[in-house]
Amino acid sequence: MENVHLAVEDEDLYSGYNDFNSTFFTETCDWSCAGENIFLKALMFSYMTTQPSFLLGTSANTSDWFCEQIHNCLSLYCRLSALTYFVKSTCVIKAHEGAARPMTSIRAAGYTSTMMRGSTFDTLGQHRGPAPPLEGKNEDAPEEKIKIMEKKVNDLIEESCMAYSSGTSQLALEKAKEARRKEQAVVRQREQSGTADHINLDLTYSVLLNLANQYEHNEMYPEALNTYQVIVKNKMFNNPGRLKVNMGNIYFQQKNYPKAIKFYRMALDQISNAHKEMRIKIMQNIGVVFLRMGQYSDAITSFEHIMRESPNITTGYNLVLCNYATGDREGMKKAFQMLISVPLGIDDEDKYIPATDDSSTNMVIDAIKNDKLYQMERDKKAQAEKYIMTAAKLIAPAIETSFASGFDWCVDMVKASQYVELANDLEINKAITYLRQKDFNQAVETLKTFEKKDSRVKSVAATNLSFIYFLEKDYDQADRYADLAMNANRYNPAALVNKGNTVFVKQDYEKAAEFFKEALKNDSSCTEGLYNLGLTYKRLNRLEDALDCFLKLNAILRNSDQVMCQIADLYEQLGDLQQAIEWLMQVISVTPTDPHILAKLGKLHNDEGEKSQALHYYSEVET
């Protein structure tokens, strides 16, 4: 316990921690070249830790030795400080002259997160100065001359295509020929300049292809074939085999069907299976050629393959025709089912129905409901319906023992397809077929089944019934069904004509004329309404108006003997016998042996005092 010493309260536990020998304190030294204390302290510590004699205190001359080492270090430090100051000064000067550069090659060049010394952040590049002027092109250089010539060739190709699109095929051909001449001049220029390896093959291909097309459009088929041969035989061009399709088309136009098939098959062999759509089109061409040659079995093989791989309406219709030509009933049924199963890829027309509350949507619908795309869809659908109706009318009498049962089978197939609305049209065609066979009772029974159908079909059926009853001179029934057709569709021109006919036979000519004019207002090409209106004006003794109607009708129905007879009769009533004779002469050119016209000509010549001419035509009547 005697050796235990209690700590004084005020004694500092850390006293003497920072004490060191003043001999080593260099801050008190008067060194003119002293720089940074940190460097000196680090230097002293380095020597203290690397000298064992110093650390252990075993050397007698430790103090003298250490002072000598300090003196040497300070001398070295002064020299380093002077050198460092010189380098720093140089870098500052250079920073004003340009961008700073790394002080050592050890640091990597490139991106640095810190701004370079001596530079400022210039987002707009205002201190970079103006860009150096572009080097002017030397148009006298051979390569520049060739580029200018190639541009002229491209311009001529475009002008040729534009000329053809505007309908001037001859000008398009001249431009294509000029492009070919200039392209050959470009090739010669390259050969002379020693750059034949840089010939623009794409330009040569474009020139030759356009020239061949223009030859073909101008029906210069030998020249077109020769030009295509130049392209096909050149192995440097890519995919020349496709042009054999064009050559096959030319042989098809020349009706050289064996060669057309040969080139189509050559093209088919050179086109990979990856180009499925193009292969299908070539096979369709092959099938059409077989159809033209009467080789229906080969055509059926081609068309059936297409209908399995990529069905379309045209191919399906051709398949029906080929099976009809061979008389294969089951083949006709199968082909018809394929035809009505072809997807059209057309959206539902409900999308064109305007919404009631969305004005922006209604504006879009108004813009697209009659645009080019809608017109294309409408034409495509109309073509499909036409082919289906024609195919059904063609095969209906051939697939069953009677045409009625054949029509019934077609109607059932159509009702189960996407063309369900065509079923009613087929039924009406069935009734019309009965009319052509003069089986009026069956026609009437068929048409009467439509009285409870929708308004469009009801109007068509009632129109046909009105016409049938009018032919049978049952004018009351004709008038009844004419009213029914008009109520179902007020804008049906055929129904208005039938109504006008029923009023005409009742001798109410003014009212009949109103119905005929309304029919023409709804359909300006309604020739029946225009003809009947002319007859009505004749009954009303409005001869000038009647003549105007028949002259308009003659512009629509050229070489119609009935129309020309009416015109001649009106000129006769107006007292212009020479005009009447001229129109009757036109009738004679159409029907040279009509005795009534010959007798009329004889009478008119006799009235004109031309006895010899009258005798000539009267003698023609007797023979």
Automatic annotation (TrEMBL):
PROSITE patterns: TPR. One of its GO terms (biological process) is inner ear receptor cell stereocilium organization. TPR repeats lie at residues 241-274, 280-313, 493-526, 561-594. Keywords: TPR repeat. Signal peptide: none annotated. GO terms for molecular function: kinesin binding. SUPFAM superfamilies: HCP-like, TPR-like. One of its GO terms (cellular component) is centriole. InterPro entries: TPR-like_helical_dom_sf, TPR_rpt. This is Intraflagellar transport 88 homolog.
